[in-house]
Amino acid sequence: MIKELTFPTRGLTPSLSRVSWGAIWASAIFTTALVVVFLVLGFSIGLAVAPTTTPASLAFAAGLWWFLTGEVSFFLGGWMAGRLTPIASFSESVIHALVSWGMSTLALTYLVLGIGAGLLGNAGGIMGGAFGTAARGAQIVGGVGVFAFLVSLSEMFAAAVGARTGTRLLVATRPLPQPERQVETARV
Question: Considering only CA atoms, which of 167, 39, 24 is closest in space to residue 91?
Fold first, then answer.
């Protein structure tokens, strides 16, 4: 059985002290930066090997890279949220990690849509010419959308597992608060 430890807050309202926005923001920024670093690394590797590989193998490698680096990034971001959460509770840490996951996912979606809008417009014209019909292009885009949804769910799970892992370390390293002993004297 897992035992959750909670530490008393010092003079703060319990409902306000349970959310550590510092832990959430730090985790979201760290996760987003890590995803961008992995994205740039994967893009540069893909450009380096593109002339020697087929488009199908390059697409498979890109999807695998996206999945694996997303798992690592969101796990580490969830670990950071769990580690920085001041209340040593698994459920509190997981909630912090999930809010951080949501913020990172929104930031990355905005980044991809902002930068990728022009690229997708150009790619649509190329794909239309390459595949011949708009229906085939729509099938490919739909498949990528389903893959993105599944990867996003797995990243959410990785963030929650990371938060639980970070919390376990926090629980294991913090000393338990010791109650003050009251000595009773016998009255004669």
Answer: 167
